[in-house]
Amino acid sequence: MERPKVSCRDCSTTESIVWSKCPATSQSDSVAYICNDCYVTNLIKKKKEAVNLRNRVEVKQEPKVAVRKSARIRSIKSFSSTPRTPKAAFVPKVINYKAPDPVLVPTNSERVLCNNMFFSRGDIVCIQDENKTLYAQLRGFLTDQYTSKSAVITWLIPTKDSPPPNERFDPSTYTIGFEEDTPRPLSSMSFVMHAPSAFYMIKHHSHAPYHGDPFKAYLPKL
C-alpha cells in the first residue's frame, strides 16, 4: 500500500528525512506536517524569543535608586562673575653652566701635533699679520684642558740680502730678533721648514761664533 504524499506546511516541500506533526492552518485539515529543516528553524526562533522575553522582564524589575540633590551644590557663576583664566604650564628653569676659561700649561714634549702636522721645537713658521708675511722660530709649546695648542716664538728679522717674504724664505739672510712671551695659537701658524733650536744662537753667540756653512745647521723644507 502506497503512503500518501504530504507536503510541508511552511515551505511546501514534499521530500524530507523526518516529518513532524503540527497544528493545521485551516479547519478542513485535521493534521499538518512540517519538514525537518522547518522544524529546526522554528525551534531556534522559539528559543531566541524566550531569551529576549526573559531579558526584558529582568530589566523592568530593576529598582530605581533615588538620587538626593544636595543643597550645598551651587552653580559656579554664583561664586564669581568673572571667568577664571587657565594656569600657565610649569616650565622648569634651565641652568646654563659656563665652561671655565682655558688655562695654558707648558708642555715638555719636543713636538706636538696640530692640524695633522707635527711641529718641533726650533721649526720656522710663517705668520700672516695685517697682510704682512712674518717669520719666527718656535721656542716652546703650551696646551690647555681643551687640548688647544699654543706656542711661544722668537721673531726673525730680515736683512738687506733677504728675498721678499711673500716669495720665499732664506734662513741664512735672517737674524734673530726679540723673544715674545705671549703665547700664540699654533693653528694660526704655517710650517716653513725644520731647523735646530740653536741654529741662530750659534751664529750670533759671542762666546762661540760659527763661521761654517750656514746650510749645514738646518734641514731644508721637503
Automatic annotation (TrEMBL):
It comes from the Eukaryota. The keyword Nucleus applies. InterPro entries: GATAD1. GO terms for cellular component: nucleus. It is found in: Nucleus. The keyword Zinc-finger applies. GO terms for biological process: chromatin organization. One of its GO terms (molecular function) is zinc ion binding. Keywords: Metal-binding, Nucleus, Zinc, Zinc-finger. Signal peptide: none annotated. This is GATA zinc finger domain-containing protein 1. It comes from Laodelphax striatellus (Small brown planthopper).
